[in-house]
Here is the input.
Amino acid sequence: ALYAESANERQELSLSNDTIYLTGGSYVKLPALGGGTGNDSLVNALSHKLDSLINVSCIATVNYATVSACDEYTWVVNGEKYTGTGVYKHVLEKGNKKGCDSIEMLNLTINHSSHYADEQTVTGFITWHGTAYATSGTYTYAYNNSFGCASVDTLKLKIQTVGGLNGEFTIASGKKVRFSRGNLQYRASTNTWRFAERQYDYVGNATATLGTVYVGSTKSSNTNISNTYDGWIDLFGWGTSNHPNSSDAYSTKFRPWDYGNATVNDSYNTYGFGPSTNMQDLNLVGGSATYDWGVSNAISNGGNQVGLWRTLTQAQWNYLFNTRAASTVNGVANARYCHATVDGVCGMILFPDNYIHPASGLNLSSCINKNCAFGEKNILAGGWQDMEAAGAVFLPAAGYRTTTTTTTNPNAYGRYWTSTYYSVSNAYYLYFYTSYLSTSVTIARYSGISVRLVQDIN
Here is the structure.
């Protein structure tokens, strides 16, 4: 070693079995360890680390890499995946160009994507990430956060519209609605639309005593309808929203107070109510949606904006009563409806999809999903308030108006319009009375019957 230093001579070492050789031919034989042979642990260690420990001409190289990544990073040097910030090391034996060890160093910073979830119930609408939403549903917003990582925010939104009830009802696969707080009512003298103050309120006629509606101390009546009537009416001919389609020449009876069975046109619209059959949209939808009371009118206590409400189709009423999956009530699975009286008013109870019957509620099991007599289940106003808070809907049997403006069978027969036409003279309606229910019957378009509007949730 001293000679090599003074002569500036470099000696390279090599290992063969248990012997170390010098460049000039000299060698050193390694002793055995622990009673074993010369190829014991010392020899093995030397053979694996010869590059850096023995061969003085072989110097290990060190490579540095600084990386920032989103959520995770796979290092190509060793194929490993890292999810946390840190400094990582990996040694590649004989990995550099001279056949010496290569030490790879990774200075890694992991930034994380943002995934913010929020659930809100609001009245009217909400502005979220710069966009206004007025319909219940689940919404997402994709963006890159401050680290440049792809991120998604999620909003589960429930819109509670003024005038809407709490319960949610499936009316078709993947489609739900919320019912208005009461039947639709109209006051001609002020051109005002509203929902009944209570679900079991109805106008009836001048002699009605249950569930009737007053203006001041004066009882409203469907028998006094006119374009100047100062009371409330709630029985309407089909499509009488007060907003006709200007291109529909045969729809002449579009005003809420219109009645009469005089023939207008036998080919396209016998009595002049609703869309004529020569129009593209025969139902109260699309180009004929102006005839729908909820689409065209601002309901004063229902958000007071046009386009917030609509009428159910015949198929949707049928699905609601006969097909949808609903809650178990008083031991009855898929409880959808029940004939009953509420505070003395006859009608039909609808149970929402997810309904929990209150402890104060009457046991309704014998009449759920069955055609029972109204009087078999009598619910007092106090008990009904708890059911309503849980989402239940009540459709009062408000009777119907004939061509002579006489209101027939209030508190006995329930008739509710659908938005679906049947013929030039008839349209589909929901029909029920004591021990009877049908969602597939038709009635003359001039008949004055009830309207109950809904709002789409999704």
The longest strand covers residues 61-70. The radius of gyration is 41 Å. Residues 314-322 form the longest helix (9 residues). DSSP finds six helices and 29 strands in the chain.
